[in-house]
Amino acid sequence: MKNTACKHFTRTLAAICAAAALVPAAFAGPTVAPYFETWAYGSSQNPNSLMTARNQGGVTAATLAFGIAGNGCSLGGGIEAVLAGSAKTDVANFRAAGGKVILSFGGASGTYLEAACSDDGMVNIIDNLLRSTGSRAIDFDVEGGQSGNAGLDGRRNRVIQRLQTAYPELYVSFTLAATPGGLESNGLRIVRSAKAAGVKVSIVNLMTMDYYDGNNSQSMGAKAIAAANSLFGQLKGIYPELSDSQIWAMQGNTPMIGVNDDQSEVFRQSDASQLATFAQQKGLGLLAYWALQRDMPGGNDYNNFSLVNTKPYEFYQLLSQSSPPPSGIQDGTYVITSAYSGKCVDVAGASTANGAQVQQYQCNGTGAQRFTLTNMGGGWYRLINPNAGKAVDIAAASTADGAKVQIYTDNGTNAQRFSFTQGNDPTTWVVRNQASSKCLDVADWSTNDAGKIQQWSCSGGQNQLWRLTKQ
């Protein structure tokens, strides 16, 4: 995969410069965590921040590319941007809004930390990133010539073991080159050595791209699925103690959307839909793609654009269709954000009093912005703010447009029951009150902190669309 020196994924040295379980997002199914080019921070690329991707495209998880060695045993590759300044703030805001962040190390070029550092040096670099960002998820993208260096496996495995001792919940994935036949020999060696060393591997993520096999009679979606089916058998051989469902959940799949480095290979929208359906049916743990910045229409350079998008974030939305189960939203605690303003649903002043206004506010990760959803039957949900211990409620059980949305002692009435219907954008939901049949709405299309949440006749407007991220 690419880093600051390259503009695309690759699996061969010749093409290098020509690349803990995550808490699931709002739905059952794979976490969809496309790669975000960290060198886009401060640039004119779109998106140039995680919050832009969240607000424009509903992105709730991302893989930050890449961390490699800078000058000696130091951090380079682009990911170092998140240690300070606006990029650090962006990651904090994204996580406060419920977003999930995977820190990815390696890629197609540059010197890996495993080659440049001692065990202590590498542990310190990664630990500093974990502490600075708050993330508890790391990925090792091992490819090209360095994937063939078995001598690096030992250091990598020792470092991961030390980090998993310090952070028992730490998610660890390996992103590895693939063919329709599954992992290549180097990838198999890397996974086997990790297991033998006692590393707890969360995900084995296939790079389903750049096959250079000359077989264009098979679609890229079909090849990605063939690779996943082959990986299933390979992982069963390495982890015979795991059930079939556990093996599927251990899989990730990462295509290069649109035109690949082998430009005869094109991963199209139909391929994304095919892969999303397969991932939902089998219960894959992760879907990703290269890269968020390429998930845009226009352009004439496949390094920067997919060259097949018809609208922004099209592949994110298609792959996200793997996530919602037919039964709707799962019970659990969520952060809820307005698809219009990007701000979080919030209890004003973190109040615990009856009648406190429900509003929107800059996402800050506090208890005032957490809501526990429970299906009370028939698809009608109760929303409890755990900080107050009180329910989201339509004041006085009103059926009028503009009625106040507040918190109130849980009383079991229909004024405190809400349905969730998927919006036209599959990352969004329309929230309708049972008593009034009216929708939760950002009053006056406000984008300001303290903008009031009210009920209003359902219109399908952007100010009535909401995104949920499970905590």
Radius of gyration based on Cα positions = 23 Å
Helix content: 10-25%
Mean pLDDT, all residues = 91
Q: Give the termini separation.
A: 29 Å
The top level CATH class name of the largest domain: Alpha Beta
Summarize the entry for a quick read.
With 471 residues, the chain is α/β, with parallel strands linked by helices. Helices cover 25% and strands 24% of the residues. Strand 7 (171-179) and strand 8 form a beta hairpin.
Notable traits:
disordered N terminus, alpha/beta, TIM Barrel, GH18 domain-containing protein, 2 domains, signal, 471 residues, 11-stranded mixed sheet, 6-stranded antiparallel sheet, globular, GH18_Chitinase, Ricin_B-like_lectins, Trefoil (Acidic Fibroblast Growth Factor, subunit A)
What does this structure look like?
By secondary structure, the protein is an alpha/beta fold. It has two domains: 13-320, Glycosidases (TIM Barrel, Alpha-Beta Barrel); 332-470, Trefoil (Trefoil (Acidic Fibroblast Growth Factor, subunit A)). The protein is 25% helix and 24% strand. The protein is built from eleven helices and 25 strands. Strands 1, 2, 3, 4, 5, 6, 7, 8, 9, 10 and 13 form an eleven-stranded mixed sheet that branches. A six-stranded antiparallel sheet has the order 20-19-18-17-14-25, with no helix packed on it. Strand 21 (418-422) and strand 22 form a beta hairpin. Helix 8 runs parallel beside helix 10 (269-282). The protein is globular, with a radius of gyration of 23 Å. The two termini are 29 Å apart. It comes from Piscinibacter terrae. It holds the Pfam family RicinB_lectin_2. InterPro entries: GH, GH18_Chitinase, Glyco_hydro18_cat, Ricin_B-like_lectins, Ricin_B_lectin. This is GH18 domain-containing protein. Residues 1-28 form the signal peptide.
